[in-house]
Amino acid sequence: MSKPVVATASLAGCFGCHMSLLDIDDRILQLIDLVEFNKSPIDDIKTFTKECDIGFIEGGCCNSENVENLINFRKNCKVLISVGECAIMGGLPAMRNGIPIRECLEEAYLNCVTVDDKIIPNDEEIPMILDRVYPCHEIVKIDYFLPGCPPRADLIWEALTALLSGKPINLPYEALKYD
Amino acid sequence: MARKITIEPVTRVEGHGKVTIHLDDNNNVSQSRLHIVEFRGFERFVQGRPYWEAPVLVQRLCGICPVSHHLAAAKATDVIVGAGTGEGLTPTAEKMRRLMHYGQIFQSHTLHFFHLVSPDLLFGVDADPAIRNVIGVAMKHKDLAVQGVMMRKFGQEIIRATAGKKIHGTGAIPGGINKNLSLKERDEFLKGADPLNIDKMISWAQAAVDFFKDYHSKHKDMIDRFSVFPSNHLSLVRKDGALDLYHGVLRAVDPNGTKILNDVEYQEYYKYIGEEVRSWSYMKFPYLKSLGKKDGWYTVGPLARLNTCDFIPTPLAQKEFERYKAYTKGKPNNMSLHMHWARLIENLHAAEMIKKLLLDRDLQGTKLLTRGKKVHEGVGLLEAPRGTLFHHYKINDQDQIIMANLIVSTTNNNEPMNQAVSYVARSVFSGKAEITEGMMNSVEVAIRAYDPCLSCATHALGKMPLEISLHDAHGDIIDVRQK
Ligand code: SF4
User: Fold this and answer.
1) If exposure means fewest CB atoms within 10 Å of the residue's CB, which of A75, B24, B41, B432 is most exposed?
2) How far apart are the CA of B378 and the centre of ligand 1, in A?
3) Which value does ipTM take for this structure?
């Protein structure tokens, strides 16, 4: 029987959720026996080469590329999981919601103590920033949510193995936090 | 016909950086740029938050080296609460933070070597990308993979014991630390069951240095000639010139080793460092003000640190340092791929430092906090795994942050990475009408040497995924390739 296929993406996240996945430590070797990885920054596969069973999404959407990437994941994965605070509700990047993007740009490039150029980057090569940061489920349907900032490695491990074995996951009360 | 080539990351690293190369009518490179396309607006949205939130908030810019941001912000807030810089903290607080920091250096340098660089060394840069990755290493070279996993785990456990959590911890607070290290925790690191004890870690770190030296001796051409260009180098050093990753004074040297920034205090870093904004990148371009925008750019990170410091204050790493320095006859090393060698020597130093700290009884002290007269501004600097990291905050009378300025390690390396890209572009793209896999790989290897943390400026965990498209004089795409 072929192994279940897993893909992962980091949108507007900090990569901490991926690092937490690596924090399953030696179980990573077990995981490699259990599943096959497809598109993921961990293995360098850049484009989907087959339909995946599980998609692991870190980060929300802060620019147009994040949105395209997320929609692509929904198309190619049977089950999609929002992993961590950023994917679930925007996280730290969403602190800019409610502040006009122009003010953010001005603070970074015009008011900065070490800068005297007084220009804001605007080249055609750099993509459009969205008006605010969106959680993933506002863009596509998400099947599961894994809380934490980042979710603990044990929680990620339990969730993955529960999904793979079809058993329900035991989410203890203290895991429901966004630290 | 003039053309433009775009190299664009396509996975998550994706959306963060891309390379464009412009060719003129004779297919010679007329311009090349690394664009950073991520923008978060941190400087603005942190305004209004109480200053003590900075150490826990800001680290969420970067989950690969969160401890660096955690500690740099804590150091800035030390100044704000009147605890001064570096020496102002109690010995327990200062050493707990150092332990956290060296644990972080150890896990990050380990991750970079085993997960990022070793696949290229083991399988060769031309190997099938399907196996040339960390999972390939795990399947084909299980021993090495286990070493990488266990070394990283050890570093992460040190972070957990000092910061409370492996990722986004809360250990450092303005003016100190919120816990000490129990004897039980200490003994676990000193005498834990193999391989999870510090002596094993030191011997594995030494083995990694040896692995690289052996590889280097067999591939001198590639390692020594790939992307070499003169650069200034900047880092913190201890007051006596020793390598110090947590605290020190700012020093910069030019390509000949002459000091161009002579051990200055960093609270007024903005007198020495400026940043240029260019319209085509969200990442700014730092420079030394004394040399100006054009000539003042500099490199940071392992290569720069070993170029600026006079010695390494631990014996095994010092021995490796002497061999490393002898290779360039004591002159600054400007070979991009020697960054890997320097990084592994630092990793050995980090392991030795961890042992030294673990044996220090100050870690069991109970004086954790210092308070003094509050001021409205503070600057915190340290050497993150990828180079010098600057945090600068101002607050108002209500303790709210009213100004934040960050210069992250990868931003400091912006111009050097652009230089590396144009070096490679000139040497492999000029005169060619088509893009080949090898040409793309070369650009990737050049950028990867800097271990660009492209999420604090944007994050590359895997190798930089690339998309290259060829554009004609009108900007129309005539060919696209991905890898
Ligand atoms: S949830 Fe936390 S750890 Fe995960 S990407 Fe967001 S900030 Fe990073």
Assistant:
1) A75
2) 27
3) 0.90
